[in-house]
Each structure stands twice: as C-alpha cells, then as structure tokens.
Amino acid sequence: MSLDEKTAAGQAAAPHRRPPVPAWLLGLGPLVLIAIVLGLFTVLNAPGLNRLSEGVPPKEEIAVEDVRLTPGQIAITVRNEGPDPVSIAQVNVSDYYAMFTQTRETMAPLESTTLTISYSWVDGDPYEVALVTSNGGKIPAAIEAAALSPERGGSFFALMTLLGVYVGVIPVALGMLWMPFVRRAPASWVRILLGVTVGLLAFLAIDATLEATELVADNRAFGGPMVVFLGAAVAYLLLEGTDAWMRHRREPAAEGTSAALPPHRLALLIAIGIGLHNLGEGLAIGSAYAVGSLALGASLIIGFAIHNTTEGLAIVTPLAKQPPGLPRLAALGLVAGAPAIAGALIGATVYQPALAAFLLGVGAGAVAQVAVKLLPMLKDKAGMTFTAATTAGIILGLAVMFTTGLLVLA
Amino acid sequence: MLSGAAALAAVPAFSTFQAHASSGHDQHGGGSGNTASGNTGTATSAAATSHAGHAGFAGGSVLPGRAGIDPTAILRDFDRGKTSLLPDGRTLRVWDIVAVDKDFEIAPGITFPGWTYNGRIPGPTLWAREGDALRINFTNAGAHPHTMHFHGIHTAGMDGTPGIGAGSIAPGQSFTYEFDATPFGTHLYHCHQSPLAPHIAKGLYGGFIIEPREGRPPADDEMVMVMNGYNTDGGDDNEFYSVNGLPFHFMDFPVQVKQHALVRIHLINVLEYDPINSFHIHGNFFHYYPTGTMLTPSEYTDTISQVQGQRGIVELRFPFPGKYMFHAHKTEFAELGWMGFFEVGAA
Fold first, then answer.
1. Which residues are CB-contacts of A79 (< 8 A; sequence separation ≥ 6)?
2. B226 and B275 share one domain
3. Total structural domains in chain B?
4. pTM exceeds 0.90 for this model
5. What's the rounded Cα separation, in Å, for the pair A50 and B345?
6. Which chain B residues have a beta carbon less than 8 Å from that of A100?
7. A135 contacts in B (CB within 8 Å)?
8. Are residues B178 and B81 in the same domain?
9. B197-240 per-position pLDDT tens digit
10. Can you tell me the mean pLDDT for A190-208?
11. Are B233 and B263 found together in one domain?
12. What is the CATH number of the domain that holds B143?
C-alpha cells in the first residue's frame, strides 16, 4: 500500500522532478549507442552497402615527404594519403629499375614507408624517381640536383644549433638594443613604434600562413592546408584563454573590462608569439637544409638576421614605461629567439610536412593574437587607436618586413 | 669528389641487394613456376647469376608460373593448327582463338590486367605454309568488343577491321576468319578495335608465320621473339618492356642455343606508345631478312630497328660458347626490361 502511495506521489511530482539521472550519463548515452551501431555496421560489413565499392579500382594517393641521398643510395619516405592501401612494388630511377628495400610493404591509409634505393647517383644530376605501385601506377619524386644529404651526426646538430643562434637568438638580442631609445622616446613616438610592431607581427602572421600552406599544398594526408588554420586558431584561442584565466585569477573584479595588458605581460606574450614563429622558421630552415634544397650562403643568414632583428624591437617597445632588469630582458630574448634552434634541430631530423605546417600555423596564430593585444596600447589621449601616426607605423612595419623578407628568397 | 665516394659505396650496397634478389627466387622457386617453364635446370643456374652492374628488378624477374607468362616456352611454340587435306590437295589449318581477360604479374608485385588471345601475351604464334587455306574460329570471351586483324593478303571482309565485314566481334560473339596463307614471311596479327592503342597494348597480338612453299634452308633452332611493352599507369609511355611478354626473363633464364648451330629468329615488334624498337646482339653478327618475304638477306649487322608492326628474320650462328647479351639498343627499353642472354653450349 505504502509503496503504491509513494509511486503515486512520485508520478504526481514527475513534471517537476524527474528521476535523478546524472547529466553526464545523458551525455554519454548517445555516444555509447553510436559506438554500438558503428560496431555492428563494421562487423556486418556495411549491410546493403557492401557491394558499393565492387569494381571500383583502388585509389592510390601518395605524398612524398622526404628524399635523402647518401653515397650510392636514395632514401625516399612516402605517405599514403588516400583511402585505400597502397603497395610500392618497384622503383624506377630515371628509367632504370633499381634494387631497393622498404620499411613497409603495404601502406594502410595515413601510414608511411621509407624506401632505400640502391643507385649510384651522380653529383649535381637531376633524377626522376617513379615509385611503381602494385597496380602499375607511378608516383613521381623529383630530385632537382643530386647532392649528398647532410649526415645527422654531432657536427650536424652543432651546425643546426649555430644556425638557430644566428637566425634567432642573435638578431632578437640585437633588436632589443633599441631598449634605451624606446625608454627615452616621447609617448607619441612609442605609439608609432608600437604601430610598427603591430605591422611587423601582422606580416609575420600572413607570411607564416602562406609558407605553411605551400608546405602542404601537395600533401593532403593530414588535411593539407587545414592544419595551418587549425594551428593558428588553436594558438590564438589558447593564448586568449590563458590571458583571460590569468586576469581572472589575479583580479576577479576587473573581469570583463578590456583594459590593455600590463606591459611586462604584453612583452612576454610578444616574446612567446615570436618564439613560436621562430620555431616554425627554424623548422623550415632545418628541413630545407636537410633535404639539400637550401644553399646556406652567408647572404641568406644575413637576410634572416636583418629580418629577425625587428622582432627584438617588437618585444621591448611595450616596456617603454616600465624598463625591466637585464636578466628579464635576456630571458625575453631567449623565449623569442631560442625556439629557432629547436626548430632547426627538429626540422633537420624528424621533418614531416604536415607537422611543420601545423607548427608554422601555431606561430601565425600566436603573433596574430599578440598583434591584436597590442592594439589598445596604440590609443592616444583622445582614445583613438588608428591615428595618422599609428597607421603610418603599421604600414612602415609591414614595409620593413616585406623589404627585409626579400633578402631571404632562398 | 662526392660522386667518386658515391660510386665506391655502391658496391657493398649492391652485393647486399643481390643476396636479397636471390632469396626472392628461392621464395617462389618451389611453386609451379619452374614446372610450368619446363627448364628447372636453367632456373637453378640462373638464380646464382650475378646481376651486379645489370639492370633488373628487386627480387629478380617474376617466375613464369607466377607471372602467367613463359617467354622461354613461347620461343619455340609454333601453333600449326588442326590440319586436314582439302579436295584440291591443299592443306586446311584450323585454329580456335578465344579472347579472354587475364591478370599477369609482369614484374614482382605488379599486376597487369591484360587482354589476351588464348590467355597468353603474346598470343599463340600461328604457323602455316604458303598457299594453305586458313580458318581461324575467333570467339570473344572478353568484356570488350575485339577483332583479329591479320597482316597478309586477303579480302576486305576478312580483315578484322571494325565496320568492314563482320567488323567488331561483340563479347560473347564469334566469327571465323578465312583466307589463304600469302605472302610468305614473318607477320603478325592483332586486335583492330578502337581505341586501337589500348586494344593492342593490353596484349592482343601474336606472331603469324608463313613458311615459303619450298621451305627455307633448314635451321637447327627456330624461334619467335615478340617485342612488347606494358603501359601500367595509363600515361603515354610504357613502364615495362620485354621480349615474349615478361621483362628481364631472359636475364634469369637465358635462351639456350648450341655453338655453330643455325639459329633463326622471327623478330616482331608490336610495341605501342614508342615509335621505334630495336634488337642488338653482343659478340656476334646476323643476317637480316626484312619481313621475311625474300630469301636473301638485306643486311649483315648486329643491330636493327623496327617500327610498330615491322618484323623480320634474324639468322645467326654463335662461333663461341658462353653467355651473350641481346637487348633493345634503345637502352632505356633495355633497362626497363628488354634485355636478356643467349647461353651458347659448346658443340
């Protein structure tokens, strides 16, 4: 009796108070169902659809990721970027079937294989390597001019480190020598300089995006250019989120107000953004050198150095009113410049186009976020962000980067 | 400087790969391949052959049983048809030819979806004597319309040209080509269905030999060599070249001949997509009879060229025992499969 009463009471209350099913379970339920349905679909071999692909020839889509030349050998890494498994059955080097071994006979989608081809290549000669698949398809890999790939030994890593120091750390440090000038400059000058910084960062964001897109233009295994924009969006949002979180923690009352960031934090953000950008730049240099497509002439290094000097200026400009100590400055310089070393090392050893493009995208997103964060600092006494002076500064920043960028047309 | 280092380092690398190549043979050596080819003895000696410095596939050429093509067997396989005597005293030769689609492993790991006459590339070598009455019962069991177009002298309706006479023979249909064997010489037949290039290049071709009425001076060893290619990727060139259908086969299984013996080779070029093919022999010269339509040679040479459809007779004797290479003297073709050896046994 009492049980019935309770049920009745429960039913009466039903419209207002449902049985306590936890919210997370409600969220998980559909997921589990989807998993079960998909599992059954797979187990039953797509009922009703299993004849859909009958007679459809397999798609063979392969991207060449890496070509390395050692004495008497050519090593080529390829990745299956299509929906069907692919086997490389023969290797044809400029119309000659060469002996080879490979790390994987059949590549499932997204898998890669490295072919080690025995071929007495001649210094400076161009080669057309055709990887012949089991269906007779040909995947071309061009070697524009055969040259020994650098060995990845101690001296090579030392060289890459030195390269990173040359193009990253030293130029940024040199750029920071403008600190005393920035400190003494009148506020209106500083606003122009900040404009220059915004222009410079905007240029870097555009430049990195284009460069990254080009890297994966022929490599769609991991979404192609999509990874660049994903990287940029993720970096932008992460920096925004971190910034908001830090603010909320420090001054919960001020939440929602969009006051300019404190200068030291802004400088750090700029350093991080530029650091991420330099990581991508180092990556590009290291990988280009490793695959032999980059002649590391002095002019190229000088070009990169001049190009990156301006980045030092970008870091110190927000600090005009609150000059930091030398150790802090050095730390900022390292945050911005040292990733070039890491990038060069990574690029020269475990180069993967999609990863490189993603990292370049991260750099682009980071510098874009910093550029946006800098905008409030451009405000003059009347609260105007875009004045004649600051817009001129932004254009100047873009122009300087464009001009110095011409020096690094490798 | 650098190049020198590269060349030096290549030597140990090659020896490693050679070991790999031999093991490849051992791997499928136990299969039906050797029995099908009928020269197991050659196979074992060939596996020990050093390829260092030669072109070839990683893993060696595909063994005939596995490939579905046996170039060595094709060499001396002359199909004389079913013969009977006509009331007028002439010989009637009848062949049953069926067009079938068939896959071949033309290079290690590479499948070629071929179109064939009687399941082989090249198709059967049809042999007749000048003046014989010929009857070819053709059935198309393939998936596309085909024809049999013979090089020779015959009426328009028997030419195997689409739109003329029976024209295209649709899948499942049959037609009997009838004509007399004339003129004597080394000829060929092939499909003439459009689009012509793929219909030929996928494998629909074969030798057609007409012996002079009085015969030729007897040869000790008579063989046919059909020079072909395989376009596997649908481009405008061939990825593989061969004689009698299997790239590099005669590198591993040399053509066995005897010292001083008269060797007569019916050489036929059916190569599609490339304008010219050629034949060159090492350590020897030969007499060449263009199209085989005359009994006197036109040339004494060691290299001849043929455009598509051109053919002729090569006659030679090997004065010394040993192994002598023969290949297209378009070295690109040679290194893409069209090279092999004669192995001359001491008399």
1. A62, A63, A65, A107, A110, A111, A112, A219, A221
2. yes
3. 2
4. no
5. 58
6. 17, 58
7. 110-111, 232
8. yes
9. 999 999 999 999 999 999 999 999 999 999 999 999 888 899 99
10. 86
11. yes
12. 2.60.40.420
Is the complex ipTM higher than 0.85?
no
Which domain range does residue B325 map to? 221-345
Give A17-74 pLDDT, tens digit per residue. 666 788 888 888 889 999 999 888 888 877 777 677 677 778 888 988 888 889 999 9
Q: Which residues pair with B140 in a beta bridge?
A: B99
Q: Is residue B11 part of a domain?
A: no
Quick one: pLDDT at residue B320? 97
Query: Cβ A99–B335 below 8 Å, yes or no?
Result: no
Flag whether B36 is in a domain.
Answer: no
**Which of A60, A91, A99, A115 to substitute to test the interface with B, most B CBs within 10 Å?**
A99
What letter represents residue B85's amino acid? L
Please answer yes or no on whether B7 and A101 come within 8 Å at the CB atom: no
Q: Nearest CA to CA, how far is B34 from chain A (Å)? A: 22
Residue ending a domain, among B167, B187, B211, is: B211
Cβ–Cβ < 8 Å for B20, B58 = yes
Residues of chain B whose C-beta is under 8 A from some C-beta in A?
Answer: 1-3, 5-11, 13-14, 16-18, 20-21, 55-58, 107-112, 230, 232-233, 235, 239, 332, 335-337
Domain membership of residue B65 (yes or no) is no
Instruction: Please identify, among B153, B187, B211, the residue that sits at the C-terminal boundary of a domain.
Output: B211
Helix, strand or coil, per DSSP, at residue A117: strand
Same domain, B123 and B200: yes
Q: What pLDDT does residue A297 have?
A: 55
Is B234 a domain residue? yes
Record the tokens describing residue A107, joined without a space.
Answer: 């590549």
The verdict on B144 and B263 lying in the same domain is: no
- One domain, residues B202 and B323: no
CB contact under 8 A, A95 and B21: no
Question: Which residue segments constitute the domains of chain A, with CATH numbers given?
Answer: 62-143 (2.60.40.10), 154-408 (no CATH)
Q: Indicate if B206 and B234 belong to the same structural domain.
A: no
The number of angstroms, rounded, from the C-alpha of B124 to the middle of its chain's C-alpha atoms is 10
The C-alpha atoms of residue B174 and residue A212 are separated, in whole angstroms, by 61
- pLDDT on residue B137: 98
- Based on the fold, state whether residues B177 and B250 are members of the same structural domain: no
Antiparallel, parallel or unpaired: β A73-80 and A62-70? antiparallel
Which chain A residues touch B if contact means CB-CB below 8 Å? 70-73, 87, 89-92, 95-101, 118-123, 130, 132-138, 147-148
Query: Quick check: A99 and B6 CB within 8 A?
Result: no
- A326-355: per-residue pLDDT in tens? 888 889 989 998 998 998 888 877 778 888
Please list every residue in chain A whose beta carbon sits closer than 8 Å to the beta carbon of residue B111: 134-136
Instruction: Identify the residue with better confidence: A362 or B297.
Output: B297
Of A69-78, A324-333, B66-75, give the lowest mean pLDDT range: A324-333
**Nearest chain B residue (CA) to A102:** B58
Q: What is the pLDDT of residues B167-192, one digit of tens each?
A: 999 999 999 999 999 999 999 999 99
Strand segments (E) across B161-316: 174-180, 185-190, 205-211, 221-230, 240-243, 255-258, 263-269, 276-281, 286-290, 299-301, 303-307, 311-316
The pLDDT value recorded for residue A294 is 58
Test A119 with B337 for CB contact under 8 angstroms: no
